[in-house]
Fold DUF3100 domain-containing protein.
Amino acid sequence: MTSAASTIAAVAPSTAAGKLKLLVVTLVLVAVAELIGPTQFSVGPGKVVLLPMLWALLMAAAWGIAHQRVPGVVRVATAQQSLAGGLLNAGLLLFVVKLGLTVGAALPQVKQAGWALLFQEFGHALGTLALGLPLALLLGIKREAVGATFSVGREGNLVIIGEKYGMASPEGRGVLAEYITGTVLGALFIAVLAGFIASLHIFDPRSLAMGAGVGSGSLMAAALGAIAAQSPPEMLPQLTAIAAASNLLTTVAGFYFTLFLSLPLCSWLYGKLEPVLGRFSKHGAQQGAAVDAGANVSSADVAHAAPTSLRDTLLAWLVVGGGVLIGNAVTYKVPVLVSLEGVLAVVAIAGAVEAIKRFVPRLPMVLVLSVVATVVGIPGLFPFSDALIALTAKLNFLAFTTPVLALAGFSVAKDLPVFRRLGWRIVVVSLTATAGTFLGATLIAEFFH
C-alpha cells in the first residue's frame, strides 16, 4: 500500500461493524490480561510487578501491528486503530472521575501529610523536565519531548495530554512512549537507581522514601524495597508510611501540578530551548524533519483524535466501563452487579459535565470534571456524597487502567513508524525523566530534614 493510500485508510471513518469489532476485541483482550493477572519477580533488593494493564497494552499493540495477518472477523485495521486513539480521549474521562472521587475521599489523609510532603511535590512535578527536556532536545527529539518529559507519564498524564493535544499528536506519542517505557522498564530502573543512591548515604532515608512516591504503586514498591534494604531495619515502618503518603499525595496533587504547572512550563521551555539545543543534535534537521513528517501524517488521522460525536463518546464509555466490570470481577472478585452501580455513578458524573460542554464548547473538560468529581467526593459535603463514595469505592483504581491501556495499545500500533524513528532516544529520555522526578523530590525533601 502506498503512503497516500495508507493515509487515506487512516482517516477513513470506521463503520458501525468496525466499531463493534473494536469494542469486542478490546474487551476480550482486557479479559485475557486480567486472567493473566499480576506477575512479580525480584531484582536484587527490589521487586518488579507486571500488572494486567501492561499485558493489555502489549497484546493490543501486537494485535494492531499484525492486523494484516489476523482473520478479518477480528482484525483491527488502521481505521479502527485511529478510532481507538479518539476513544481513548473520551474513555479517559471516566478515569478522571474515579481519580477526582479518590482525591475527594483522601483529602483528610492528605491534610495530615505535612508541608514537607507538599513541597517535595514540586520536585516530582519539575524534576522530569529539568533533566529530561534538555536531553531530549540534544538527542534531536521534537514535540514528542513535551509529552515525554512534562511528567513520569502515568495514567492521569495520559488524560491531560489526550485532552489538550489528542493522543494522535506528537505530544500524545511522547507521553505514550514515556508510559510504555516506565511500565516495562521503570520499576527495574528505579530499583537500581534508588538502591545506588541509598548506598551513597548522602540523603536521609526518609527523604529517599518521599522521593519514592512518584505516583505509581509498582515504582514506589520497587524503589522502597531498594531503599529499605540499605536502611536500619527499625526504620522500615516509618519509611513505608512516608513513601505511601508521598505516593498518595503525588497521585492526588500531582494531577493538578502537571496540569497547571509542569505542562505549561515544559511547553514554554520547549519553545525557548529547542532552537538552541536542537541544533547540537547529531541527528540534525534531517532526523527532526523525519519525525515531524511522521507526526504530520499521524496528525492527519485526527478524524478520531478528539471525538465530538455523542455516539463515539458513549462507545468509549462502554469500552472502559465494560473493562472495569471485567477487571473488577476477575482480579478483585467484586460481583458484576455491584461494580455496575459504581460504573453507572461514574458515567453519570462524566455525562453531566459532557452535556454542559456541548452547550459551552470552550469549557476545559478535564479541569471542570476533576473539580466536580473531587467536590462531590468529599465525605459529608453533600447529602449523597457518602453514598457516592461507597458505590465507587468498590471500583478498583487499576481496573480503569486496563481497558484504557488496551485502547492505547491500538493507538501505539498505528504510530509504530514514528516510534521507530524515535527509537532508543525516547527510552533514554523516559528513564532520565523518571530519575529526575525521584531525585528532584528527594532533594527538596532533604531540605526539610
Remarks:
- The radius of gyration is 21 Å.
- The first helix runs from residue 3 to 11.
- The chain has a mean pLDDT of 80.
